[in-house]
Amino acid sequence: MITEREESLKMIRETVREFSRKELGPISSRVDEDDYFPLELFRKLGSLGFLGITVPEKYGGSGLGYEAQAVVTEELGYDSASFSLSYGAHSNLVVDSIYRNGSEYIRKTFLPKLCSGEMIGSLCLTEPGSGSDALAMKTHARREGDHFILDGSKTLITNAPYADLMLVYARTGESYTAFVVLSSDKGVSKGKKFSKMGMRGSPTGEIYFDRVELPADRVLGKEGDGKEIILSGLNAERVILSFIFVGLARKALEASLRYSMERRQFGRSIAEFEMIEEKLSNMYTRYQASRLLCEKALVEIQNDRMNAIDSAASILYTAESAEYIAREALQIHGGYGYVKDAGIERLLRDAILGQIGAGTTEIRKHLVASNLVKYFRKNKSLPK
Amino acid sequence: MESSTSTGDIVALKMIVMMKQVPDAEEIFIDPVKYTLNRSQARGIINPSDENALEAALRIKEKEGGEITVISMGPPQAENAIIECMGRGADRGILITDRVFAAADTYATSLTLAAAVKKLGDFDIIFAGESTTDSGTGHVGPGVAEFLGIDQVTYTIDTRIESGMLIAERELEDGIEVVSTKPPVLVTVLINSNLPRRSRLRLKVDAIKKGVEKWDHDTLSLPVDWVGLKGSPTLVGALKIPEERKRESRPVKLEEIPALVDELVKKGIIKIGEDA
């Protein structure tokens, strides 16, 4: 596995793990129970160099790659999937995209604050009437002289209640354009914070834009570039967010092993029963398969950010597997697993988001199959 | 002092931090059968007051500029602790490691570290933690200063540079003493005197690429019988756990107290009288 092979990635994993076990693990049930977003801890990720991990040092980042970001996401996901989701939304969906697509002005103005954690970012794509069919968005911006006027609303936005900076996609005539919008811009307002089934503690909310006047230099990339930014961003997002569920699955599997070895019924540990053995072996196999698939997707996305097949396939399989593994973990724990104190039921509630966020399982299947057909028609062979 | 200009301003301040890797006390447990300390599970960490020493050096570097070299004597695994120091902002790491240095007491350790400092060349300030959590003698910092024949300021809680002078606050039993001294000088730093920063990922990755220099006995060219166990005058005769005194208790009625006092006097547990 690539994330275990390289010395620097091993060190990054140890560093994140130490931080996460000491500072995030102990508060993770409170994060869930109270739907509490640990803002100061999040900002601390900035001082450690995690938030701008893929951004060069001259903009305040750490100058590392997607592999390093995946390792951070996985290790945070092990302790708190919701915290890791907020991390991924900020660090990958917003910070990485602003670096890759932003003008020098945008990079210099916003990246240092986003990398340090002084500013928190949200990516705004989903709208009340457009989820899977993202390009059917209604939010639009029209040019008026040297600036744009943005109108519309976005919903189910990760980090929205705390966001200082939003990367907003909007229609500009027939095409789409990405804008950098600040919560302090006139005409920006925030709706309610949603109370979710899982991923509690990762704040999700609504944002409204009412005649928001944006100078032309707030366009990310060029006017009309939005579609490609959305699609390439979604691919990277799917690969990185997969690692939340790799971490979650690892935690569920470790807890299941520990419990099934300790728990004795009918005079022996339940790990010796064949029906538990079947669960453990399936859980392990699907966990390892997920990891390998995600690591392959990491390599692919590093080379080609338009690779939709591997990125969709990795999160498709990993999210389904994490939900399966968390469900089996709960079953192995029996009554204790159903009680909140064990922390197992949270894994299942959190895992369910995996099949919904960053494209539903259904959309991912469509992406894999349709792109595969296209590829095969052209190349008469499978992608490598 | 070579690195000072005629006006006394220090240019390109050269700092050295002496650091030891110690087992994490939180991860040491007592063997339930043999009642000995089991360190095998414990991770190596930077000795806590050495973290404060490094932080003190980093704060001076931030204000005054300069360069920090971390030196450590220990087994090859101590490299991790040096990488961590470089991840926090130290520029260079040197691990003094050789089997002949093993089992050194504080005398031989100080001598070896002083030889390493000499080999490094000019320096302005050496920072060391006040003592280690795994032996706690507090000898090594002052020992190195003695071998180098330089001034030392111990028990510091804050240090800064003013017009080429090192200003240090020493925490003493009856107050805080402020000392001004001219580099080169060795400073020992008290535990918890500052909040050590965490390492930054990028710096750690760079540290791994840069690597830690390893110096062995040949590099330092010290006579073999000056170092390690041979160079250590300390002899540990024996190590014993004192036996716990047996305690007993019994209920005493108010009228029995005079008799109890007599009994305690008789057994020599308490004394009554002017010479008591």
Record the strand order, biggest sheet of chain B: 11-10-9-12-8-1-6-7-13
Largest interface chains and counts: A-B, 17 and 13 residues
Q: How many helical elements of chain A?
A: 12
What is the tally of helical segments of chain B? Answer: 7
Instruction: Give the tally of β-strands of chain B.
Output: 13
Cα Rg of chain A: 21 Å
Content-based structural category of chain B: alpha/beta
Q: What overall geometry of chain B do the principal axes of the alpha carbons give?
A: globular
Separation of termini of chain B?
Answer: 59 Å
* Integer-rounded radius of gyration of chain B: 24 Å
What value does the average pLDDT of chain B take? 89
Looking at the structure, what is the overall shape of chain A? globular
Looking across the biggest beta sheet of chain A, what order are the strands in?
Answer: 1-4-5-8
* CATH-derived topology of the largest domain in chain A: Butyryl-CoA Dehydrogenase, subunit A, domain 3
The percent range for strand residues of chain B is: 15-25%
Key features of this structure:
heterodimer; A: about 375 residues; alpha+beta; Butyryl-Coa Dehydrogenase, subunit A, domain 1; Butyryl-CoA Dehydrogenase, subunit A, domain 2; Butyryl-CoA Dehydrogenase, subunit A, domain 3; 3 domains; 4-stranded antiparallel beta sheet; 10 strands; about 55% helix; B: about 280 residues; alpha/beta; 9-stranded mixed beta sheet; two-stranded antiparallel ribbon; 7 helices; 13 strands; about 25% strand; disordered N terminus
Describe the protein's architecture and organization.
- The complex is a heterodimer of chains A (384) and B (276).
- Chain A is an alpha+beta fold and 384 residues long.
- Chain A contains twelve helices and ten strands.
- In chain A, the strands form three sheets. In chain A, strands 1-4-5-8 form a four-stranded mixed beta sheet, covered by helices on one side. In chain A, strands 2-3-7-6 form a four-stranded antiparallel beta sheet, covered by helices on one side. Chain A has a two-stranded antiparallel sheet with strand order 9-10.
- In chain A, helix 2 runs parallel beside helix 5 and helix 6 runs antiparallel to helix 7.
- The radius of gyration of chain A is 21 Å and the shape is globular.
- Chain B has 276 residues and is an alpha/beta fold.
- In chain B, 27% of the residues lie in helices and 24% in strands.
- Chain B has seven helices and 13 strands.
- In chain B, strand 9 and strand 10 form a beta hairpin.
- In chain B, helix 2 crosses helix 5 and helix 3 packs across helix 4.
- The longest helix of chain B has 17 residues.
- Chain B starts with 13 loop residues before the first strand and ends in a 10-residue tail after the last helix.
- Chains A and B meet through helix 2 of A and helix 5 of B.
